[in-house]
Please model this.
Amino acid sequence: MTTPAWEHDCVFYWMVKAVLAPILRILFRPWADGIDNVPRTGAAIIASNHLSFSDHFFAPLPLPRKVVFLAKSEYFTGRGIKGLVSRVFFSSMGEIPVDRSGGEASERALRTGLRVLAQGQLLGIYPEGTRAPDGRLYRGKTGVARLALEGRVPVVPCAMVGTFEFQPPGRLIPRLRVRPGVRFGKPLNFSRYYGLETDRFVLRAVTDEIMYAIMKLAGQEYVDAYAQRLKSGRSLTLRNHLHRPPADGASAGPGTSGTTDAGVATAAAAAATTAATGTTAAGGATQPGIDDASASDSGPAGAGSR
Model:
């Protein structure tokens, strides 16, 4: 059996970090808060919002432990010089390629993540599954909950702050006037749900509690919809606008997506009710986004970005 890169590239990881860390600190002056909330030993999940490509650098930068992140498989399959550089960099950092097509691919990613946790390591994951298109926080996918419950490990909420302004999607050169930062919250313990990792209501409640903790740390506006669906909707709207002439008297502007701003209070209340009663939402508690929980949603949210 071939040994995964993240298992044998530990030395190279620290070499790369030793070289990059001083450069990043001098050039961009990143700040960090709550480092002591990250366990010094033992397995744990670092669950973070995802605003920018630069999150891959600044999230693990201040930590004295290696973080194995789940990263989209496209980072490892690119062609040409750019693809080679991307593949070498992410492989050297011990990141795990994740196929985000769902189904069996998500299950394989889940098992790989559990293997990392079983070895007592820190596993990094972006529950939104993709970069936020507009700097807001979107509904998390329930893969993070499955990993926490099946791996029986705490979840450390992590908030990237300012990285969207520092390097928004599509921008190559960072804005030097913006100081990127990372904030780690107190570990979340979900031991009360152990043994219920197949209950989709529990998975949604756990995920919402994690996202609420991230929202409080980051100070972001919450959108009760999946970021990837919003991106897909925008792409479809743009394509329709480009290829379909407007009707007489109609505006030529592209349509807007159907996301709703709200749902955090409901999510927090549902999670709190579940925690207090020790029961699942099957008894009638309202769970935001429960209708969207499906088999494909149950795999780990990919760490990748678009």
